[in-house]
Design goal:
Elements: E1 6-8, H1 19-28, H2 31-55, H3 58-83, H4 99-127, H5 134-156, H6 162-191, H7 196-223, H8 233-241, E2 246-258, E3 261-270, H9 276-291, E4 295-301, H10 304-307, H11 311-316
Parallel strand pairs: 3-4
Antiparallel strand pairs: 1-4, 2-3
Length: 326
Amino acid sequence: MANPTDHAHHRDHPDDGNHAHEHQHLRRSGGRALLLGLLLTSGFAAVELVAGWLSGSLALIGDAGHMITDSMALGLGALAARLSMRPAGPRHTFGLQRAEIVGSLVNAGFMLVVVAWIAYEAVHRLLEPTPVSGMAVLVVAAVGLAVNLLVLKVLHGGEQNLNTRAAILHVMGDLLGSVAALASGLVIAVSGWTPIDPLLSLFISALILISTTRLLREAVHVVMEGVPPHVDLAALRARLSARDGIESVHDLHVWTIASGSYALAAHVRVQSMERWPEHLDALRRVLHEEFGIDHVTLQPELPYDVAFLPVRELAGKGAPGDRGSS
């Protein structure tokens, strides 16, 4: 009979280093989309920064700052996607899948710094207005908007994990920044009213701050091994306990390893050890098909009134004496 304590892992990639499969995993992790986004973003960031400096537009400089930060974020995201492909080993038994979470945390931190800097500069510009070349801002912002739309389309083509979502958040910030710069340039070119530039920068920074805070909260939830948002723990426990021959499920733990990869560990009290292989297969199917959980560790236990019988009586009931350990 199989070891009563069973552990099932259905990994997304084998450990044989197959080159074709590695490229497929890189696509799923969003690595290629992130690399292409990095090239597009970094290429335009320098142009926008120089144009913003020459035109005196904070909205344009802020958008360039977003794009420079995006380049760092996309590079970090691509590195995290690559690291997440590393197979499991003796030091990291789940591999390096959580490199994605680390990347999203660092990227969120970068965005908080950028938002704080833009807000500071915007307040300073409101107190001490600076001349702005509206037409130059208008042209560069229009090109920046096109570039950001292209990068956003590329990133949406990759897998939507936390790492890619963090990068998309940066690009969305750039997109909004380009819209703000475009509106700013238009208003200044038509009316000459320069306060619109820092005011729009503050508004966009507030929107980015809300999205960044949400992403940061989700990433911290994963690091703290919180229950995945799509899992109702009470419903999951009831579903597992509903099977005939299973008395209860306790010491139930569910957590996220990385986006789309979930783990579960629990003790299952069964009426008879003889049916455990049958129960195990059925519970695995339920967890995979209904809850999307593939990393499963289940420890069977006998009822207390059976578990503490003398060995000779237990043997007489046909139950094995060696229950294994977790």
